[in-house]
Amino acid sequence: MAASPTRDDFDRYMTPNYSPQQAIPVRGEGSRLWDQADKEYIDFAGGIAVNALGHCHPALVGALTAQANKLWHLSNVYTNEPALALAKQMVERTFADKAYFCSSGGEANEAAFKLARRWAFDNFGEKKHKIISFRQAFHGRTLFTVSVGGQPKYSEGFGPIPGGIVHAEFNDLDSVRTLIDDDTCAIVVEPIQGEGGVTPATPEFMQGLRELCDRHQALLVVDEVQSGVGRSGKLYAYMHYGVTPDILTTAKALGGGFPVGAMLTTDRVAPSLAVGTHGSTYGGNALACAVGLAALTTIDTPEVLAGVERRHALFREHLEVINRKYGVFKEIRGMGLLIGAEMSDDFEGRARDILPLALEQGLMILVAGPNVLRMAPSLVIPEADIQEGMARLELAIGQLVDPS
What we know:
Elements: H1 7-13, E1 25-29, E2 32-35, E3 40-43, H2 46-49, H3 58-68, H4 81-93, E4 98-102, H5 105-124, E5 130-134, H6 143-148, E6 165-168, H7 173-177, E7 184-189, E8 192-193, E9 199-200, H8 203-215, E10 219-223, E11 247-250, E12 261-265, H9 286-299, H10 302-326, E13 329-335, E14 338-343, H11 354-360, E15 363-364, E16 366-367, E17 372-375, H12 383-401
Parallel strand pairs: 3-15, 5-6, 5-7, 7-10, 10-11
Antiparallel strand pairs: 1-2, 2-3, 4-12, 8-9, 11-12, 13-14, 14-17, 16-17
Helix pairs in contact: 3-9, 4-9, 10-12, 11-12
């Protein structure tokens, strides 16, 4: 019988662009996981905001197995029923008129940025190509999306990067006003900066961006790869702001763990993505879309979305209790079940140190940069699991504060 893979096998056989924790989970149920040694963990990481219904949710397992016995893949030479059903539901539940499917958030953003430039080219000419994004933004790992993202560490060493991209300050409308002009084709924004530190946009900022786009005939592109599909307490976070995007990107929770992404847009903009302008071999895959439809319709219910708000309050309450005891956090922020706890001055840059300590206590958690502890659990995580997970987090933070 072959030996089970070990963490050393990662270093031996995988490229070194990741540095995973030592435990190797092998099975999951709900918001709990078990590793090779059958040690149990509570999951506050959610696959980085992906496992929105936890692990092995019956609705997703049922959709996947039913579709697996019918049809897996056709390519886009043909369409398929799951893709059409998912597109219909996404359009009916959002601002959009049209949907484009792909396999990841980076691909969704690549399509969105290409569409924005092509729309401007079709309607105004080649000079209107400038994209405004924001410092500390994250939009993916392709060369185009990493260039639009406002974190130079992700594009360093991969130059020359695409031109025509400028970066303003998040939540600072004046910084946008100094950059925008009639050559701007799009403003690209996350309603909640995720990788940049779990920072929500203010209502005034989002509304101001919409007004500036309208004034300069530019498109508002809203990146909801991390904040979308119930994560904020609404189906999409833009719905909190009273602002309608021209293009929206979504992935992560859309498949509940199965790789799927989408770009949504309007009938005004969609014609610029004409036949031959863009494509994806796996986009609209029948398996992915069947699971995506099950995830979307399970999450977009009053019960689940109201439960997100209730769980947010529980997370915040427990984090504040821990902070009163240890003083490790400067600020607790976020929306719904995308929550960030910024480290205090005495523990600046030490958020990542908590991950292995939490793992020892049986808790999986995330960071958003070196200074923010991030939580993105299942949207239906049982309240008892929140309480137990926070008890484990408190033990881990106790070790951080006093290693003896």
